[in-house]
Write a structure and sequence with these properties.
The protein is α/β, with parallel strands linked by helices and about 625 residues long. The protein is built from 21 helices and 22 strands. It is about 40% helix and about 20% strand. The structure holds phosphoenolpyruvate and magnesium ion (MG). Phosphoenolpyruvate binds next to strand 16 and helix 18.
Amino acid sequence: MNFLKKIFNKQTIVKSTLTITSSNGFHLRPIAKFANEAKKFSCVVTIIAFDEEVSATQVPKIISLSLEKGENFTLKCVGTDANEASAHLTTFFEELMENDREVETMVQTDERYQAPTLNGVSVVPGIAIAPLVYCKAVENIESQKSLSINDSVELVKKELEELYHKNQANSEADIYLAHKELLSSDIFQQNFKDVESLKETITKEMESLKGTKFESRMADYKDIQQQILTHVGITTTLKLPDTPYILLIDDLLPSDVPKLANSPIQGVVLKQGTPTSHASILLRSFAIPTVIIHDSIEETTEAILDTSSGNLVIAPTELDREKAHTKLKAFQKKKAQNYKNRFESTETLRGKRVKVLANIGDVESAKEAKELGADGIGLLRSEFLFMERKPTLEEQTNAYREIFELFDELNIRTLDVGGDKPLPYAHIEKEQNPFLGIRGIRFSLLEKTLLEEQLLAIFKAVEATDTRNKTMKIMFPMVNNCDEFIEAKKIAIDIANTYEIDLSAVEFGIMLEVPSVIFALHEFDQLVDFYSIGTNDLTQYLFAIERTHPSLQADALSPMVMNALKLIIETTKKPISICGELAGLGAATETLVNLGYDTLSVSAKLIPSLKERIRNV
Ligand code: PEP
Ligand code: MG
């Protein structure tokens, strides 16, 4: 009885009046965020408007109030934490309204057009106003080239391998690797007697994909065919306009995309393909507004491509043109604003700070990351300094020092070779399943001299740098049990002792990319200073689907991955970041931040837009 009395006495009632300031009204998205926020308090929160009182945690009830711009409601909080809830929810609501005004600019311009409009699937956001030009690939025969088909296959494989290594830090890398893997498949091991037999084989493969969920991979086969034929002496060219244009094309090959980016292209209308095809991935990385429309379309002297609604407006009216220009300006303004704000600190609507770091491969990419607003380096894929030849101790030291001087935080991953990254001068026995073999720390613990020299180079870089406010974080890749970490760290400590290196600015952690670690986090917490989650490998090992497999693809956004990330962050007490591709995916930002991840590391180009997305969570 006394207990109840105590609680009853502690009940506080706080009321405040809030006004809808967004001309979108209090609509679904802000309502959902508000309700979610209200649930975090133990007091009872209600909304009173038009003589009706509804629970602030019940979205449909709030919607039924139909609160419009300029209207008020009373926020009522009853309970022990009413004061705190009222203050927090008031600020939260005001921020929601403020933020909703920004969205409004985009929504406002998203109106219907007067002229005939075709609708399709948006692939890359943006808007373009230009002539719609149909382009077809034209085959040219160059007689002086005379490589056999089989030699051409080998040459293309080699070229793709090189492209893959060169682009490791970028999203394109996986495409080159996928093509190389396709070329390594059995169908290309036969003896091709002429061009026709090659084309026949490839067509047969493509036909078998029709109507399956891998249909979008047909373009990859065409691309490979074209690359092989180029070495045989048959080149295919796209004749592109030299004045601004929107490209209308049946299907695009991934290798065509960089060529487009060098022309005055404004947008792309694909008649075939899918948003997840490799050409689409590349179009995204070059930020070329793109839509897929299957209807029959003719060339036209002027068109509007408005991908926010998947629209292609043929022969626009004056009013359409005006609308499109306004929208284009708003879009460009947003992009410029993201870029302008790239150095601003990144906080969510509720004031939670999120660090945005960069994934890099060398000194050049570190400089680019600095320019694009990186708060530090979350992943230096150090193996790319080692790929062509072994760098000297001095070369390594200089590279690490230069990067460390640019940032306060540098996460260096020690050599991660093996798997899809063979080291030409290190001997690794050919394995049946290289991704399950001598990779990462397993390799380094076998070939200790490379690891020892690398650690010494890192320590020398630390020694040569003014480390006040700086942290050098060394992380070991592919660790799957505590002993591996203990052994690797011991090697480091022994080197530091031998060379009398002060390690006060150095931390030791692991890449969390093998699922076994998730089930030993309590033990790892006793040993490591931090974790960085490599979602690329973690996803591959969770689903047992090789990350470079040409046709199988694990879903990086699957709830199973999210559940793993939830379990990790709820279990560990150590600092944790994410440096796999997932960290840069627009569709994942809100979930990751809400799960509690406050450090995301992505490729440099994604930094300004990721920061902006975080500011709106
Ligand atoms: C990862 O596995 O997610 C990761 C960041 O490492 P890498 O892609 O270099 O294997
Ligand atoms: Mg990895």
